[in-house]
């Protein structure tokens, strides 16, 4: 179980880093709105991470 949790955290961090590295690349419209887009992506990642931790907690509580 610990290995699975560690893998999920590593994948989430990798996805976050990859998204932030790629956020400055693309069309000019995207570059102009990088701050807003980065903020939106950060909010999405925070929500997904929180929901993932809740899901893991529910799984551990009722299925393990």
Q: What does the largest sheet look like? A: none
Number of strands: 0
Overall helicity: over 70%
Q: Report the principal-axis shape.
A: elongated
Q: What order do the SSEs take from the amino end to the carboxyl end, as H and E?
A: HHH
Broad structural category: mainly alpha
Overall average residue pLDDT: 83
Low-confidence stretches: none
Ends: how far apart? 10 Å
How many separate structural domains? Answer: 1
Strand content: under 5%
Radius of gyration: 15 Å
Helix count equals 3
Written account of the structure:
The protein has one domain. It contains three helices and no strands. The chain has helices spanning 2-22, 28-32, 34-63. Helix 1 runs antiparallel to helix 3 (34-63). The longest helix is centred in the last third of the chain and has 30 residues, at 34-63.
Secondary-structure blueprint:
Blueprint: H1 2-22, H2 28-32, H3 34-63
Helix pairs in contact: 1-3
Keywords:
single chain, 64 residues, mainly alpha, 3 helices, 88% helix, elongated, transmembrane helix, transmembrane, Group-specific protein
């Amino acid at each position: 179980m610990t290995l699975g949790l560690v893998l999920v955290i590593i994948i989430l961090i990798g996805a976050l880093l990859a998204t932030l590295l790629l956020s400055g690349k693309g069309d000019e419209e995207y570059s102009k709105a990088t701050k807003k887009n980065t903020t939106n992506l950060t909010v999405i990642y925070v929500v997904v991470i929180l929901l993932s931790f809740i899901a893991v907690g529910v799984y551990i509580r009722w299925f393990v």
